[in-house]
Design goal:
With 51 residues, this protein is of the alpha+beta class. Helix content is 41%, strand content 20%. It has one helix at 21-41; strands spanning 2-6, 9-13. The chain has a two-stranded antiparallel ribbon with strand order 1-2. The longest helix has 21 residues, at 21-41.
């Protein structure tokens, strides 16, 4: 994982090892969902973009 501050907030880069692109995207979705739920519950706004 690597985080970078931007003018709009922060970019988060995940480096995953998985048997396929589909599996890595599913892993990333699970990680980001787990991280975003507490942030949203505390009133933070998030924008998630998956590549």
């Amino acid at each position: 994982m690597r985080a970078r501050l931007t003018d709009e907030g922060m970019d988060l880069y995940l480096f995953l090892r998985a048997p396929s692109e589909t599996a890595s995207l599913a892993q990333a979705q699970g990680i980001l969902t787990s991280a975003l739920l507490p942030l949203v519950s505390h009133g933070y706004r998030t924008t998630a973009t998956y590549c």
